[in-house]
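Quick question, first post here. What does this chain look like in 3D?
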Amino acid sequence: MITTATTFLLGSMIFTTSAQAAIAGKTVKGPKGQTLTVSTTTVKDGQKVKVVGKKFNRKIGIYLAFCVVNAKGEMPGPCGGGVNTVGESTGSIWISSNPPAYGKSLAKPFNKSGGFSQTVTISRYIGNVDCTVVRCAVVTRADHTNSSNRKADVIVPIKFKK
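> Answer (accepted):
Ran it through. Tokens below.
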């Protein structure tokens, strides 16, 4: 006999499993314990991917972007999306809970636990760099107010479908 409580419990389990599957791609842990999860890491040119970040330091603003991966210890870049001066680009997103005054309407704030959920558009080319030839990734890196800080770098490599 199935009771109302059992039906609710089963329905909750199905919903939770579906929600987890929606962002079940690849998760990478950063140098300070932060995590970056990308919904899929094998994409087509122009595809959008869902990106979820957790446990980021809310005092350090970041860029979430699709970038060329450079040597270890070097800032990822160049990145797609360019300078996001209107806050609407899906190629690069500025996330900061304490941006300078000029960035208050541009930056997206972290949630209370240092997390975010955004969509990033993946392009085969970043400028004239072909990401089927060089290594590119969805990354976080410290924003321009602290750009030499490598503690915010989290890198999830992306491959293109043939």
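The chain has one domain: 25-160.
Residues 4-22 form the longest helix (19 residues).
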